[in-house]
Amino acid sequence: MIKTTDLNNQKQINNYMEQREPFIIRNASCIRTTSKKWSPEFISSINPNLKIPVKRYRKDNSINVSNTTLCNYINYLIERRDCHYPMKGDILYCHDIPMFSMMKELISDIDLSFLTILPKWYHYKWWRYVQFFMGPKGSWTPLHFDCLYTHNLFFQVYGKKRFVLIEYKNHIYLNRVGWRWFNSDTERPQLNSIKDNINLKMMEVVVNAGDILYMPPGTIHSVRGLEESISFNIDFHTPRSSLYGLAKVFQGMPIKTAYYNLICVLGLVFKIPSRCLFFFYRSYLNYIS
């Protein structure tokens, strides 16, 4: 069972992070008001003509990326609210986009008390490091780990998602594809080696509106939208994890990925301010998507 804590219990949070333990903060104060305010319609009302990339997930597991307006995408979500899952046709998912940089009006809705979890290097214009997700019921991110081997702080603002978490040390029991993806199916384990492997331990957690989920570096995870949802996350390093992540270049990490870890090492270990380095890091936010 996943550990739970409170945003005010910084000592316990630090202990969990030091021990590489995932944890969840239920009904977190920093997004409590936001979770009551935000909806797809609210987001669209701010800038309906904003162009956003959406991923089209096909039945054969291929992914196509196209652009549409925010208004058109919200209309797509509204049309599918009464559909039963699994829905017919492809799923369109607004996935991994820097929405706070595209729509700065949203920034003031977030209480900054969560910043105590992040190293101070990330505090200056923290919103630049945020990746945003919005999608219908049934939206899906396959099994993977975060490519820089970062800590992951995930904020569920609207709707509900189900995470399956697997410790990185168990990757040897999974069907790995490339650097960070796996084609093992956590929802239908009978179709692959997961079912019969007694050594593989998976943790399932449902994240509700207002919750914050923390995942340690290297956590292998898949995500399923149980409802129409809005969420965002921040991938972040500590000095220790940035060095560990950089060393992964000797274990198959792509050079381009290692480049972004090097930037984090320069900031967190050698104390170069983020305002001086973000120009070189910014393309990572498009790279991961």
Characterise this structure.
- The structure is a single chain.
- The protein has nine helices and 15 strands.
- By secondary structure, it is of the alpha+beta class.
- The chain has a single domain (3-239), classed as Cupin (Jelly Rolls), CATH 2.60.120.
- The strands form three sheets. A nine-stranded mixed beta sheet has the order 1-2-13-8-15-6-5-3-4. Strands 7-14-9-12 form a four-stranded antiparallel beta sheet, with no helix packed on it. The protein has a two-stranded antiparallel ribbon with strand order 10-11.
- Helix 1 links the parallel strand 1 (3-5) and strand 2.
- Helix 3 (40-46) packs antiparallel against helix 4, helix 6 (239-247) packs antiparallel against helix 7 and helix 7 (255-268) packs antiparallel against helix 8 (274-281).
- The longest helix is centred in the C-terminal third of the chain and has 14 residues, at 255-268.
- It is globular, with a radius of gyration of 18 Å.
- The mean pLDDT is 92.
Briefly characterize the structure.
This protein is an alpha+beta fold and 289 residues long.
Spell out the blueprint of helices and strands.
Blueprint lengths: L2 E3 L4 H9 L4 E3 L3 H9 L2 H7 L4 E7 L5 E7 H10 L11 E7 L1 H4 L27 E6 L4 E5 L6 E8 L2 E6 L9 E2 L3 E2 L19 E6 L3 E5 L4 E6 L3 E8 L2 H9 L7 H14 L5 H8 L2 H4 L2
Parallel strand pairs: 1-2
Antiparallel strand pairs: 2-13, 3-4, 3-5, 5-6, 6-15, 7-14, 8-13, 8-15, 9-12, 9-14, 10-11
Helix pairs in contact: 3-4, 6-7, 7-8
